[in-house]
Design brief:
The chain is mainly α. It has one domain (about 10-110): Orthogonal Bundle (Arc Repressor Mutant, subunit A). It has helices spanning about 10-15, 20-30, 35-40, 45-60, 75-90, 90-110; strands spanning about 60-65, 75. A two-stranded antiparallel sheet has the order 1-2. A hairpin with an 8-residue loop joins strand 1 (about 60-65) and strand 2. Helix 1 (about 10-15) runs antiparallel to helix 4 and helix 2 packs across helix 4 (about 45-60). The relative contact order is 0.13.
Length: about 110
């Protein structure tokens, strides 16, 4: 079963590929924020920040209030959880490789002292 362009993770990982968008998500972990709040740390125009926010919104990583005057952005935990769940399936592989690397490095260290 191959991945299609309709796979939600495709849009998620594409959205996460840009450091500004990852920074925006990191800021939203602390709570909801307006576009102006999110734009403050960046040396880019407000329209550029708005485009990044739109990409995050289209990927489902954030939501925007439809009722509040400033339409604050909010992190969408279920979309972030989908990424964590996807990554978690690879944990046994990473741990096995790190364990093997640790054993190899220890064996090299032991040889150096011989």
């Amino acid at each position: 079963m191959g991945m299609t362009s309709e796979d939600p993770l495709d849009a998620t990982f594409a959205a996460l590929a840009h450091p500004a968008r990852r920074a925006i998500l990191a800021r939203l972990v602390d709570g909801d924020a307006t576009v102006n709040d999110l734009a403050e740390p960046f040396e880019m125009s407000l329209p550029a920040v708005s485009r990044h926010i739109r990409v995050l919104e289209e990927a489902g990583l954030i939501t925007r209030s439809k009722t509040a005057q400033f339409r604050p952005c909010k992190l969408n935990p279920s979309a972030v959880q989908a990424v964590a769940t996807w990554a978690e399936q690879y944990r046994p592989i990473w741990e096995a490789r790190f364990d093997a690397m640790d054993a190899y490095l220890k064996s090299m260290k032991d040889k150096d002292y011989d």
